Amino acid sequence: MKPGLAELLNRYTRLPVQARASICSFVLLIMLSPAVFAAAPESDPAQGATLELGVAPFLPVRTFAKNYQPMREYLDLHLKQPVIFVTAPDYKIFHERSLRHEYPVIITVANAAYLAYTEAGYVPMLRPMVNTCPVIVVPVNSRLKQVQDLRGKTVALPEPLAMIAMQSAQLLLEFGLEPGKDVILKHLPNHSAAVNHVIAGEAAAAIVSDRALLQMPAATQAGVRTIYTWKKGAVPGVVYLASPVLQPKRIAQLTGMLLEFSRDTPEGRELMKKLGYEGLVPATGQDLEPLSTYGEMFRKAIIETSAKEKSE
Question: The whole model's pTM is what?
């Protein structure tokens, strides 16, 4: 008998931290791929024993798996080819694997999506109907009320390669706060970790994605309040893209199946509402072109990170 999702998660969390980081293809969601798909050539990786959907590490594994459980159940019921959701230890490794076309399909953040599209030839499939914006959150009982109140304070952020982390500098500068001088920035592995850092009293505030905040456990959301939403920074929270290795017909079929779930089923509509996306719509290269500046920032940050790793 195959282990269930809960059992897989329990096995994973019992492993040492070092072992967890080394499991590059840890299963987040299980069993995907449509029974309605036409047969693809043997060379098509989407037609193999397992179809992998790579998910950028913007949320903890447990949170992602719990939120996307309805999608897993729907696809498990309707599809015959097993599909698993996998992630990577960080954005840099996830991006490097995307460039090597290790993931037939990826669900990634906007800046990484731009590079996957322009450098690795990934084909835009879907994006949320509602964009995400950076928000500044503080402890629910904090006296901080406006952005200027952050002067001299520590602000938690997702890891440096995260889209929101890159937007944070511009946000703070608009209010006369120079990162590293007027505000101390502290990067955490993901959005949830940044918010929990605030709740624990380790930072005065956090800058995270408003859509990511909606996807966190209710207790986490209740522990903070939003003091500012930077609407100017609105971008797609995630983008679904397909590897150019896949057949065009296969990409169209995968896109159609995901659209069908999000649009035509009660479970899918409820999930989209919970994620703050309201639904998914087809994505094109034109949706990604405005993200070129952030894409270049992402590229430079990766180069700097790689250089630093080599020097160490």
Answer: 0.77
